[in-house]
UniProtKB/TrEMBL annotation:
Phylogenetic placement of the source organism: Bacteria, Pseudomonadati, Bacteroidota, Flavobacteriia, Flavobacteriales
Pfam families per the UniProt record, alphabetical: COX1 (PF00115), FixO (PF02433)
InterPro entries: Cyt_c-like_dom (IPR009056), Cyt_c-like_dom_sf (IPR036909), Cyt_c_oxase-like_su1_dom (IPR023616), Cyt_c_oxase-like_su1_sf (IPR036927), Cyt_C_Oxase_1 (IPR000883), Cyt_c_Oxase_su1_BS (IPR023615), Cyt_c_oxidase_cbb3_su1 (IPR004677), Cyt_c_oxidase_monohaem-su/FixO (IPR003468)
Keywords: Cell membrane, Copper, Electron transport, Heme, Iron, Membrane, Metal-binding, Respiratory chain, Translocase, Transmembrane, Transmembrane helix, Transport
Ranges of residues in domain Cytochrome oxidase subunit I profile: 11-465
Protein name as catalogued: cytochrome-c oxidase
Length: 716
């Protein structure tokens, strides 16, 4: 049969490669800025948009969606064309995908520091950007599937299975988790509340890790590791088992982030069972990757690309062993809310994602610019500096995590807590935070070396041009299985059926967990004393969200003796029915605040937010001075209450109509109570402080956990 000539699009690969390097350095730099705030909490004092609570989601979004996202697109656009022997389906769609994704990243970089956030972890971006993400993701999917359909290769290779699973699953996760009711151009409320929102969010959050940080990178592993080693994949059969078991099991595992919380026990147990099962397909992928290097280990000594791949796959194995272990309730009770989780996450991101990206970038640089790498010595230096950076980052945080868990749970013989002051646990781990920042500095330095190495390689090489190739077109054959054809080989040439089965595999787990929680009232017993937030408390909650306070403070007291003794009555599912969104948190840099209402007077909160060290010596919490000068924006208060009514919050029409009147009355009452402190009168005697944002924040904090009496559970 006569072969057809066509060109591979290398220019789009170059664009994504440059974006990967640039956004990688930006995301890691923001991460280092965040890490330094633990040891120097006031080094960016007074700058609201550079405070910890606003920078932390910027860092996570930058490294996940900007750095890892662009690295996936870089590798996918390169490998997909060659595996299918076809140019991308549409060059215009490729360019829209690239520029659309970069604009989304820029929008995130602007809105998150401004405090425009939904607060949901890894899904903080507000509704207009969420819509843009969905549109660009669908454009990418059309381009991918269109390329598959016009391929000149009958069977789709294992890497493409993972690309398809990534496209389908991220679309489903993103849409369902980000269902929200807009209030204004950049303010919305999740359609889910409390326990339901928590389950949907961690169904998304865990599987964002699974299907944005894992499956696409596994696809890249299956292409680039054999290419770099010049060896075939170790086992095709293991690839099949790895793929189908991984995508089916992973989707169930989200509830292990919510063990010992107010989530119903059956959902927690489902998450635990499937999380433990997850170790088998995960390690199947790791084994398949490492054993692909059989007979090529001598090359690892000489080839920096293979060095990065080996440590990356090993890091994947470590992280995917640790994840299932942390889903055991015994270990979860120790690790959750501590820095152990931060160390665990960064083994995955720094080793698995970062080193896979680095290895692919080095390998692609020589192919795109048709020259040798500028300096193998620099690449090896990057490898060793980066590896040391991972160790200096993770090991101190493991130590910090175990230290925190131990100190939080220790009792004196008389039954009192040994470390009753939460700050004692914070100051104890400050040296570990300093070592973490040093490790981050090393890791960032390695990527700066990579950027220089790639730049010099590009300067020495030739201009990136599209690559002329030829291949025979596919002959049509029957859709039925042919004689001797394996069932999976048959499935690989039935692209639409393959995609449908993939969608079913990832949909089952989410549906079984989420639908009962949304439809069966018994899962969330009602508590009659729990009432909606007042207008001022609602505004205060939104400021709390804007400042990212939930990044450091949880609002979920687990039923442990140590937590009940430290914080108060454990949290009940019915307490969160008006929380749009939920704010249970995932890390305790500061104490839990679910029962903080009434624990301190208004003056304490006023002074604490202005200067945390004045009330809590040794605190590493930043100052929020702008809350004392910025007037509370009440232009959307009535709209917010009307949105809450649509979501099921029982505000009467009279309460909505009188919302601003009720808000001002409560603010005046708080300001009046503050005047009982002579220090306040001396400093703010003539000021109109009842109109400031701090009044709303105090109102919200004083409300937390006050709706139920000790031991009260469901309606009776």
């Amino acid at each position: 049969m006569e072969k057809e000539q066509f060109y591979y699009d290398n220019k789009i690969v170059r664009m994504f490669l440059i974006a990967t390097v640039v956004w990688g350095i930006v995301g890691m730099t923001v991460g280092l800025m965040v890490a330094l705030l633990f040891n120097f909490p006031n080094y960016m004092e007074g700058i609201s948009w550079l405070s910890f609570g606003r920078l932390r989601p910027l860092h996570t979004n930058a490294v996940i969606f900007a750095f890892v996202g662009n690295s996936f697109f870089m590798g996918m656009y390169y490998s997909l064309q060659r595996l299918l022997k076809a140019r991308m389906f549409n060059d215009t769609l490729s360019k829209i995908h690239f520029w659309g994704w970069q604009l989304i990243i820029v929008a995130a970089a602007i809105t998150l520091p401004l405090g425009l956030t939904s607060s949901k972890e890894y899904a903080e971006l507000e509704w207009p950007i969420d819509i843009a993400i969905a549109v660009i993701w669908v454009i990418m999917g059309i381009n991918m599937i269109g390329t598959i359909l016009k391929r000149r290769q009958r069977h789709i290779y294992v890497a493409i299975w993972f690309y398809l699973a990534t496209f389908v699953t991220i679309a489903v996760l993103h849409i369902f988790n980000n269902l929200e009711l807009p209030v204004s151009a950049f303010k919305s409320y999740s359609v889910y509340a409390g326990v339901q929102d928590a389950l949907v969010q961690w169904w998304y959050g865990h599987n964002a890790v699974a299907f944005f940080l894992t499956t696409p990178i596994l696809g890249l592993m299956y292409y680039f590791v054999p290419k770099a080693a010049n060896r075939p994949v170790y086992s095709y059969r293991l690839s099949i088992v790895h793929f189908w078991s991984l995508i089916f099991i992973y989707i169930w595992a989200g509830p292990h982030h919510l063990l010992y919380t107010a989530l119903p026990e059956w959902a927690q147990n489902l998450g635990t069972v499937f999380s433990i099962m997850l170790i088998f397909p995960s390690w199947g992928g790791m084994i398949n990757g490492l054993l692909t290097l059989r007979g090529a280990w001598d090359k690892v000594r000489e080839n920096p690309v293979l060095k990065f791949f080996v440590v990356a796959i090993t890091g994947y194995g470590m992280a995917t062993f640790e994840g299932p272990m942390l889903s055991f309730k015994t270990l979860n009770a120790i690790g959750h809310y501590t820095d152990w989780i931060v160390a665990h996450v960064h083994i995955g991101t720094l080793a698995w994602n970062g080193f896979m990206a680095a290895g692919i970038i080095y390998w692609l640089a020589t192919k795109l610019w048709k020259t040798e790498l500028y300096s193998k010595k620099l690449a090896n230096a990057h490898f060793w500096i980066g590896t040391l950076g991972i160790l200096f980052y993770a090991i101190p945080l493991y130590v910090a995590g175990f230290t925190q868990a131990s100190m939080w749970k220790q009792f004196n013989p008389d039954g009192t807590l040994v470390y009753g002051n939460f700050l004692e646990t914070v100051t104890q781990v400050l040296p570990m935070y300093a070592m973490r920042a040093f490790g981050g500095t090393l890791y960032l330095t390695g990527f700066i070396l990579l950027a220089y190495n790639v730049y010099k390689t590009a300067k020495a090489g030739s201009k990136v041009e599209d690559e002329l190739v030829e291949a025979a077109p596919l002959k049509k054959i029957t859709t039925r299985r042919t004689a001797g054809e394996g069932w999976h080989s048959w499935l690989e040439r039935r692209t639409i059926l393959f995609t449908v089965l993939t969608t079913l595999a990832i949909a089952i787990g989410g549906a079984v967990e989420i639908i009962p929680l949304l439809t069966i009232d018994e899962n969330i017993p009602k508590i009659t004393s729990v009432k909606p937030y007042t207008p001022l408390e609602l505004e205060g909650r939104d400021i709390y969200i804007r400042e990212g306070c939930n990044n450091c403070h949880s609002q979920m007291i687990r039923p442990f003796r140590s937590e009940v003794e430290r914080y108060g009555e454990y949290s009940k599912a019915g307490e969160f029915v008006y929380d749009f969104p939920f704010l249970w948190g995932s890390k305790r840099t500061g104490p839990d605040v679910h029962r903080i209402g009434g624990k301190y007077n208004n003056n304490w909160h006023f002074n604490h937010m202005l200067d945390p060290r004045s009330t809590s010596p040794g605190s590493i919490m930043p100052r929020y001075s702008w809350m004392y000068t910025d007037d509370l924006d009440t232009s959307h208060t009535q709209g917010k209450m009307e949105a809450m009514v649509k979501l099921g919050v029982p505000y009467s029409q009279s309460e909505v109509d009188k919302g601003l009147f009720l808000l001002r009355n409560q603010a005046e009452e708080i300001e009046k109570s503050l005047r009982q402190d002579p220090e306040y009168v001396r400093n703010y005697g003539e000021s109109n402080m009842q109109d400031k944002e701090i009044m709303a924040v105090i109102a919200y904090l004083q409300r937390l956990g006050t709706d139920i009496k000790k031991g009260e559970t469901a309606e009776n």
